[in-house]
Amino acid sequence: MPNRITHSHWIAAIEALAVLACRLACSQAAAAPNVLLLYADDWRHDTLGAAGHPVVQTPNLDALAAGGVRFEHAYVTTSICGVSRASMLTGQWMSRHGAQGMVPFETPWKDTVVARLRNAGYGVAHVGKWHNGKKPPDEYDHSVTYHGKHWYQVDGARTHVTVRNERDAVAFLRNRRKDRPFFLTVAFFAPHAEDKSPQQYLPQDWSEELYDDAVIESPPNNSLESWRRLPPFFNEKNEGRRRWLLRFDTAEKYRAMMTNYYRLVTEVDRACGVVLDELAEQGERQETLVIFTGDNGYYHGEHGLADKWYPHQESIRVPLVIDDPRMPDHSRGTTRDELVLNVDLAPTILAAAGVSAPALMQGADIAPLYLGSGEAPWRTEFFYEHPTYHSADFIPASEALVRKDWKYLYWPEAGYEQLFDLKSDPREENDLARRPEFEDQLVRMRTRFDELKEAAR
Quick check: 65 and 47 in contact, CB under 8 A? Predict the structure, then answer.
């Protein structure tokens, strides 16, 4: 009589296959690199010693750039904390992931970079700022979330948020499972302002003498004239203007605020150095893909504004440094000029780990730009978008077609267009949209803008 396959046999077979699949995934992941994402807040592209900044000191990140690749034209597709973080996790524009603010994105969690890596055998961890609604703790092997203040009471001791980031990151690295690779995001809150504090930027005690003798110059377009060149619907109710008045409306206040901002930057740099040193002590530094970037740029008074949101260069350009174990020696210590985006991070990380990206990811793997010996084809433009926040008076919606030489801005609520020649006008002070001699260029940019806007959905 033939053997009968019972229900218990099926269960045992399924369990055996599950164990085998897990072992296979872990075996494949064991050859994959660790991934460390150092993710700063409100840190624009030029605030690095390696980028030639005349004041700020970032020796650890400068060393990272000296051993890796620094991208000089890295941008975000939406310049606000929550949306940009959602784009980093999903590899998608806001139009597709749907997170218009500090709320959960609509993309299924299984299609995030975190879920894909965890399913491939990675240990995944997040410490610091989240800002995408309630973080799903069961989807991480380790997670600690906090932001909004610079100083906390931790175990009865006054502790700076950057110190918390550093300690929590090191704790994960020391206590993690050592038999599988990891993906760790260290989401620094600094140098973001503490919005409810009149001081705005509250650094640590050890850095309080940094930059005391530095010459901190206000940008030339931190002026009433530049503010008046913004579209006519910008008024004193605008949140960027309100924060400018809070931080930058006098020379003395500007120097005090920017000095403390730079101190926070240097503190984050120091914490990055501690985390990288821990990797080195564990013998994992050469096995780790390290990425340093930010969630958005930041006005330092340009256009009479503070913070971010709008499509000007100061707001949408971010630092991006990558140190990849696969990187050839001739790529190390170089800079790249390609136009890369925050939506590229997820597919880049997945490709390095040998994990397929979901079909609906819109970014591209950056690695061929520094791994190959030849020049890879790459984008020369992108669509930028930002939602209305609270009201059009508070933070109006904005969109743009961004190239390295031209930029087209569209303000949907007012139906207002702007056009800038970035080569002759890098500060975006001279709007050409209503000048007849630029009508053809305006029409070309508008048409391409419409095409890329549709493609972002």
Answer: no
352, containing H or E segment: helix 345-352
DSSP-derived 3-state class of residue 113: helix
Question: Do the beta carbons of residue 27 and residue 281 sit within 8 Å?
Answer: no
The span from the CA of 308 to the CA of 290, in Å, is 26
Q: Which residue has the tokens 């939506």?
A: 343
Tokens of 44: 């624009």
Q: Which tokens hold the place of 427?
A: 């500060």
**What single DSSP character describes residue 433?**
T
* pLDDT (tens place) for every residue of the chain, 457 residues total: 444 444 444 444 444 444 344 444 444 444 799 999 999 999 999 999 999 999 999 999 999 999 999 999 999 999 999 999 999 999 999 999 999 987 889 999 999 999 999 999 999 999 999 999 888 889 999 999 999 999 999 999 999 999 999 999 999 999 999 999 999 999 999 999 999 999 999 999 999 999 999 999 999 999 999 999 999 999 999 999 999 999 999 999 999 999 999 999 999 999 999 999 999 999 999 999 999 999 999 999 999 999 999 999 999 999 999 999 999 999 999 999 999 999 999 999 999 999 999 999 999 999 999 998 556 789 999 999 999 999 999 999 999 999 999 999 999 999 999 999 999 999 999 999 999 999 999 999 999 999 999 999 9
pTM assigned to the model: 0.92
What's the rounded Cα separation, in Å, for the pair 205 and 193? 17
Q: What sections of 211-342 are H helices per DSSP?
A: 224-229, 239-247, 251-281, 313-316
Report the distance separating Cα 216 and Cα 214, nearest Å.
Answer: 6
